[in-house]
Design goal:
CATH class: Alpha Beta
Radius of gyration: 15 Å
Largest sheet: 4 strands, antiparallel
Structural class: alpha+beta
Number of strands: 6
Number of domains: 1
Length: 132
C-alpha cells in the first residue's frame, strides 16, 4: 500500500465502513487529486476548516470579536498546494466531524498522507499550534 493512503486505510471510507478508532497522530489532506490534478478552488482548505472553526465573541470592554480555526482541523500548505492538517484526536472528541472531513477527502478523491511520515524537506508549512 502506498504512503498516500496508508494512514487512512480504514478511515478513508468513513461512510461505508466504521473509522478505525486506533488512528493516532495527524493526517494531511492534500489539495491534489489521486490523478495528480490540483483541487479547486484554491481556498478549499480554509473553507473546509471554517466548518470546524470557533467564533469567539467579545464582552464589554474586551478585544474585538475574532474567528479561530479548531486545533483539530487546520489549513496549511504542503508540496506547493493547499492542504488540511487533521488531528486524529478529533476522532475521540467528535467522531462525526472526523468522518465528515475524511468523507470530503474521499468524495473529492484527494490524496491523504500520514503527517508523521512527512519532514520539513517536503515543504510542509505546519501550523504553529502543531509544530511543537
Amino acid at each position: 500500500m502506498s504512503l498516500v493512503h496508508a494512514a487512512t486505510a480504514g478511515a478513508a471510507q468513513a461512510t461505508a465502513t466504521p473509522v478505525d478508532s486506533s488512528l493516532r497522530g495527524a493526517i494531511l489532506i492534500l489539495g491534489r487529486t489521486r490523478e495528480g490534478q490540483r483541487f479547486r478552488p484554491d481556498n478549499w482548505a480554509e473553507r473546509l476548516c471554517g466548518v470546524m472553526s470557533v467564533f469567539v465573541a467579545s464582552g464589554p470592554g474586551s478585544a474585538p470579536k475574532r474567528h479561530g480555526y479548531s486545533p483539530y482541523c487546520m489549513p496549511t500548505r504542503a508540496d506547493g498546494v493547499s492542504a488540511v492538517l487533521l488531528d486524529c484526536e478529533l476522532l475521540a472528541v467528535e467522531r462525526r466531524a472526523f468522518e465528515f472531513i475524511l468523507g470530503f477527502a474521499r468524495d473529492n478523491q484527494l490524496q491523504t498522507v500520514a503527517a508523521s511520515a512527512l519532514d520539513s524537506s517536503r515543504g510542509i508549512d505546519a501550523p504553529a499550534a502543531l509544530a511543537a
